[in-house]
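Bench log, entry 3. Co-assembly request; chain sequences pasted below exactly as received.
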Amino acid sequence: MDVVILSRIQFALTTAFHYIFPPISIGLGVILVIMEGMYIKTKNPLYEQMTKFWVKIFGLVFAMGVASGIVLEFQFGTNWATYSRFVGDIFGSVLAAEGIFAFFLESGFLAILLFGWNKVTPPIHFLSTILVCLGSLFSSVWIIIANSWMQTPVGYKMAENGARAEITDFWAVVFNPSSMVRLSHVLSAALLTGATLVLSVSAYYLLKKRHEDFARASFKISIIVALIGSFLQLGTGHWSAKVVADYQPAKFAAMEGHYEESAPAPLYAFGWVNEKEERVDFGIGVPGMSSFLLYLDFNKPVKGLKAFKPEDRPKKVNWIFQSYHLMVSIGMGLIALILAGAFFQYRGTLEKQRFLLWIFVFAVVAPQLGNMLGWVVAELGRQPWIVYGLLRTSDAVSRSIDATHVWASLIMFSLIYALLFSLFIFLLDHKIKQGPQISHNPISDGGKQRA
Amino acid sequence: MIDLNIVWYVLVGVLFAGYAMLDGFDFGVGALHLFTKSDEHRRLMLNSIGPVWDGNEVWLVTGGGALFAAFPEVYATVFSGFYIAFMLLLVALIFRAIAIEFRSKQPMLWWRRMWDISFSVSSIIASILVGTALGNIICGVPLGKDYEYIGTFLGLLRPYPVLVGLTTLSLFMMHGSIYAIMKTEGELHDKIRGWAKRAILGFIAMYIITTIVTLVFYPHMLENMKKYPVLFIIPVINALAIANIFREIHLGRDFRAFLSSCVSIVALMALFAIGIFPNLVISSPDLANSLNIYNAASTKSTLKTMLIIAIIGMPFVIAYTISIYWIFRGKVRLNDTSY
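Structure output for the full assembly:
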């Protein structure tokens, strides 16, 4: 394997590992704001107990995000130096904006969120929770803008020697054609990711008949967040597909395994892309349905992969097809599950639905899987380009490293991440089994006696 | 004569100096961690930096981002050229973060000892690596015509950069010990006070050796100061600050000692920046391939946009930093939210 493929695998591994955590932080952050807001408003100690418990989980998740996140910022330089030289003028400034506007906010107020219960008044603590939540939101804004610019680059001109893209319009970069839709898709997925974690733990407690008041209240708040998230997912997902079809037609064609140069595109539920014969085998779907969803016309032709030169097509068409379809199925499944949960919650008979609750316990992995698959579609679908239409991935890699270097770091990251992930699960499990603590230490008493 | 490129040279310098000053003391606390023996003392050490270490590390992340944005050629050359060194730094930073977070989560002795060692060793390694990188910039690294690094990993571990690395470690140990004095009380406080005195002496010895070696072997670090003699004020400030650390520690004014230590770190970063200016990466032996603030920079338009972002953002950053340090001021006490 050469430096390019090894660096791609390493980037995929480190990014996928990192991306387990930020969506939880974002979604759980919103839920924390609701819980603590309820506490401030009602002074009900139950909400305080909930906030304190979930803040501890939040702290653990956040630490994992910090530890794995710093790798990503360094990695553009270490493995993708030619890319960094090419995009520094644009991508670098967006990344720096993320640092200045988001990371300082997040990390600063996280200190108050985690350790400040006795140091500040309850309203200031609540304000800190809101600011941490906003910080993680801003962080996602800038990083999605950066990635979206790689998908749909605008607001630049090529340097005279062709060695780099130079910025011409900062706001055009920020509001590039795919940034807002992808951001909304990512954020609604984050709501869902955070909410399913709370739902999972709450369902587990309900099944085990432990901490039941806590579990009921947590379930109620997070099922509403999940409901909002899942419907936003549906809408933004549709919009996202449309933007892909408009701006990255080769990616869209790969998502649907659509090869014909110009024909109405079907919508498959299942299928297996035969990349050799350039067709979809065993496909079950509705002919012309993709054309209809995109343009409200069953007969409207959509550009297929054959419309692109072989060297400009994504290579792993079946991977993209399967990831995309699996992601959509997971999304639909989650909507059904959450609707069912909301229905029984509304009827007040949730605790009798033991089977449903068990599904909720395990459903925590579904949005995670959906997130990963979504990124596989986004990134594999952009190939062979690293910056769509401008720079090929094979030309973007560092020139001063060789395969041995990357093998070494790849093996190292695999081992470290395997260890960290096991420890994370072990500690998370421990915290969940331990459960929420009855507070002996209300926010307002200064807490000095427990020092 | 002051153009955007110089402004960004200074701003990136400010971010890295802020990083050295802030993460410097928590690296130092980490390096001293294993000298404390009881679990309570170790928890006190850890919790003295508990609320702030994460924010401190953001200075590195933002400094890296600013370097990427303002001088992408430097970011690309250094990060890919020093590949193995940066991977080791990443491992150290990962284990450091995880050790701080995980240590308190289980009561078993082996668990706590494992994370104690991990926290301390990674702090030491990270300090040495950061200093070694700076040392390599001072003595120059081989760059090709396309500004790509053409040396090896072992080529980075020459005696001088390693000397700078060890000096950095001694600086951070001094800085961290003074911070720890400020945050602790009683028995632990008295113990650390003894270490701090030794750490200060250790740093002064390392600093004198490094200065002599630099002046003898790398006299180019003095050229800008000879051109603008007013800049000699900085080594003078540095010497006064270091002398003052001694005085304040002796008088038991720990906060002032800490401030002096901060001044000294900023002065050292300034000396480094003045020494290499206008270069960012000196190419040796082929000086013509050096990366400087002009041939490595982004376009004027990006530098201008970034300046606006910095002008909007930095007041907030400084306000957050000051409020957090204010809220968590005073001696560290353990409670049920501590690590």
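Residues 196 and 364 of chain A are 5 Å apart (CA to CA). DSSP finds 14 helices and eight strands in chain A.
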